[in-house]
Amino acid sequence: MTKNDLLQAGLHGAFVADGFDSLPSAAQPSRTGDKLATLRLAVKDVFDIAGLRTGSGNPVWREQQPVAARTALAVRVLLEEGAQWVGKTVTDELTYSLAGVNAHYGTPVNPADPARIPGGSSSGSVVAVAAGHADIALGTDCGGSVRLPASYCGVWGMRPTHGRIATDGCLTLAHSFDTVGWFARDHSTLALVFEVLAQSVVAADDDAFSVHVPRNLLACADVPVAARFEAAIEATMKSLGERVSFVAPEASLADWAQAFRVLQAAEIAQRYGAWARDHAASFGADVGARFAMSLTITREQTAQAQRVRAEAIRAMAEALPQGIYWLIPTVPGGAPRADASAQAVDHARARAQRMLCVAGLAGLPQVSMPWTRIDGAPVGLSVIGARGADEGVLRVARALHEVMQ
Predict the structure, then answer these.
(1) Is residue 342 part of a domain?
(2) Most buried one in 26, 48, 122, 311, CB count within 10 A?
(3) 115 within a domain of the structure (yes/no)
(4) Residue 332, in any domain of the structure
């Protein structure tokens, strides 16, 4: 049995063999602090680690990459603060999926419900945290690749404001959407990682805030999820009073999700199109189909989608003035079963994108937090804030988590 076989068998399939349990000497940083000294760190295999190749979930891609000379900035900063290296984690191929299913390296096992997929593309990272193999795990979030798996596996996950955390040394799928993101099992660790990466402070203050529940997003949720959410909101309103209210945005989430898909695909084709065309046979069927689709996007489609995105940015700026936050289930429901058909998994992805595209299109910070279970499957809640309001999103998420359990 190979080392990778042992990893797959014993650690929920979360890790790749490279660098597991042993950080190359070239990547050992000079320690500058101890804020993370007791915390174990796992890292999605899209971040460069000096002395290792970055595989990005595809063996052919990995073979063509040089051994990294430098460690990705986000990883280095965490290591400098004393985080303890665990290893690199499995990712969907070049991160172009939300399922967590990899045709080459398998599907990491969802510790919250092994009969269900973990979600992706940061599949190994979320599983490492949910299973207790790591305390912190870095991922990336382009269209929901931290938020969705956090919900599916019942852990905390954060997508910061686009551009808030440097992506130097990290493979990004679509440059105007991708962010560094991360997972943790508790709010305090999630917030601590933000403080280290963003060089900021999430103060424990009592700044006034109001919570809006957008009805158009709630309408995307499965009926049992929406019903439980409305009951939880009723109880929350008794605690927070007039600070919680329902709103009815006029935006078409179908149009927003379609604009997201077009713009993401256009950027993917811009960066990876030639490689994907030349190496089409190296992809699993689902990811290969998405790369092939990206090559068909026209300039006219891109221009129209960009107009929709501009409107989405304007609408969300108006919807989220200072002190206002949105609260909503992160995705429509629990994770699809691991034995579900490819069509069923793709349908779940498309439905989830209607809820996930809001923060993606407008570049907003979003935190997904553990909430409930429906038919045994975890479902998370999300707080969304205005651009740059990451600290507020973290504070509000903590406050709401305390009253909605």
Answers:
(1) yes
(2) 122
(3) yes
(4) yes
The SS3 assignment for 156 reads: strand
The SS3 of residue 387 is: coil
Q: What is the CATH number of the domain that holds 139?
A: 3.90.1300.10
Backbone angles phi, psi at 370, to 5 degrees: -60, 145
Give me the sign of the Cα torsion angle 170, 166, 365, 176: negative
Q: Which residues are catalytic?
A: 44, 121, 145
Name the nearest CA neighbour of 129 among 147, 156, 101. 156
Q: What is the pTM of this model?
A: 0.96
Q: Which amino acid is residue 388, in one-letter code?
A: G
Looking at the 3D structure of the chain, how many domains does it have?
Answer: 1
3-class state of residue 113 by DSSP: coil
Listing DSSP states for 319-372 in one string gives HS-TTEEEEEESSSSSPPBTTS-HHHHHHHHHHHHHHHHHHHHHT--EEEEEEE
Helix, strand or coil for residue 235? Answer: helix
> What strands, in cross-sheet order, belong to the sheet with 366-374?
84-89, 40-44, 136-141, 179-184, 156-159, 366-374, 377-384, 324-329, 210-214, 244-247
- State the Cα angle at 279 between 276 and 284, rounded to 5°: 85
- Kindly calculate the radius of gyration of the chain based on its CA atoms and give it in whole angstroms: 20
Residue type for position 140 = T
Asked, for residue 285, whether it belongs to a domain, the answer is no
Walk along the chain (405 residues) and give the pLDDT tens digit of each residue: 455 564 566 789 999 988 888 899 999 998 999 999 999 999 999 999 999 999 999 999 999 999 999 999 999 999 999 999 999 999 999 999 999 999 999 999 999 999 999 999 999 999 999 999 999 999 999 999 999 999 999 999 999 999 999 999 999 999 999 999 999 999 999 999 999 999 999 987 767 899 999 999 999 999 999 999 999 998 887 777 778 899 999 889 999 999 999 999 999 999 999 999 999 999 999 999 999 999 999 999 999 999 999 999 999 999 999 999 999 999 999 999 999 999 999 999 999 999 999 999 999 999 999 999 999 999 999 999 999 999 999 999 999 998 887
